[in-house]
Design a protein that fits this description.
It catalyses: adenosine(37) in tRNA + dimethylallyl diphosphate = N(6)-dimethylallyladenosine(37) in tRNA + diphosphate. This protein is α/β, with parallel strands linked by helices and 304 residues long. It contains 13 helices and 6 strands. The chain has a 6-stranded parallel β-sheet, with helices on both faces.
Length: 304
């Protein structure tokens, strides 16, 4: 019997093999999986979010996969609360639980808690939204780059809500958004061991390109087409959907849209790695590492 309860958090860039590894670990430790992928919550978009397949979901019990609709309002704060409640339940019958996901903010919310930010005048957000409407997202990105380069290099720049949130804190407080991060870690009734998967950049990018091609072959165009009337929803303001909405609106060719999906996903993967490498305690492994070596490393760390 272990002295502590352990959450094994599997992180890494998109397309690196986190889902497969988490299932192998869940099988070995006879436990269940918490998903911390903020896009896989939504049941209407399984293809573009690379959600686990039916066979993968059967291989190990998953939580927070397809549990929400794109019409639902669901924040990282709500996820933190829900995930901690679920972990409390799971730790009653399991010594170890697996968490997997590439959404760094959602992972951190569970492992260390959300950071405390100052109260911001609502007028600032209104002004930023007006800038978004009149000058576009790139104008806001450039402002953020000047005010807070660290945040500019780590957040999802294609997500206007994330950019505006960071900017309103910068403007409202007079301090960089990044200066409020990782100040105090919340006490958790479990220990976290983070396992990171990585690969040389050319391999990561090649895997991403192949994954996007596989998504298109699996019916991504049809999936997005069905959702065209809901393109305004925040859940769909994400890579893989925005680009095809542009195609459907006649703004570009399908070939161009697919190429842009690949480019934006590669950029996202770069930011994921930047985010996750802030944690100096992460045990990093090449994506091809044999599962036995990863399990050995986990058991060694836990035994200490």
């Amino acid at each position: 019997m272990l002295q502590h309860k352990y959450l094994i958090s599997v992180v890494g860039p998109t397309g690196i093999g986190k889902t497969a590894l988490s299932i192998q670990l869940a099988t070995y430790f006879n436990t269940e999986i918490i998903s911390a992928d903020s896009r896989q919550f939504y049941k209407e978009i399984p293809i573009g979010t690379a959600a686990p397949s039916a066979s993968e979901l059967q291989a190990a019990k998953h939580h927070f996969i397809h549990n929400k609709s794109i019409t639902d309002t669901y924040s990282v704060g709500s996820f933190e609360k829900d995930a901690l409640t679920k972990l409390t339940q799971l730790f009653k019958t399991h010594q170890i639980v697996i968490m997997v996901g590439g959404s760094g903010l959602y992972v951190d919310a569970v492992t260390t808690g959300l950071d405390a930010f100052p109260k911001i005048d609502k007028a600032i957000r209104i002004a930023l939204n007006n800038t978004l409407e009149t000058e576009g997202l790139e104008a806001l990105q450039e402002i953020l780059k000047q005010k807070d380069p660290q945040t500019y290099n780590t957040i999802a720049l294609q997500n206007p809500h994330r950019v505006i949130r960071a900017l309103e804190v910068c403007i409202g407080s007079g301090k960089p958004y990044s200066s409020f991060l990782n100040k105090t870690a919340s006490n958790r009734p479990f220990k976290t061991l983070t396992i990171g998967l990585t690969a040389p950049r050319d391999i990561i990018y090649n895997r991403i390109n192949n994954r996007v091609d596989a998504m298109m072959a699996a019916g991504l165009l049809e999936e997005v087409t069905k959702l065209k009337d809901q393109a305004h929803l925040n859940a769909l303001n994400t890579v893989g959907y925005k680009e095809i909405f542009n195609y459907l609106n006649g703004d570009c060719s399908l070939e161009s849209a697919v190429s842009t999906i690949k480019m934006n996903t590669r950029r996202f993967a770069k930011r994921q790695l930047t985010w996750f490498k802030r944690n100096s305690n992460t045990l990093w492994f090449d994506y091809n590492t044999d599962i036995s070596k990863i399990i050995e490393a986990i058991n060694t760390r836990i035994s200490k």
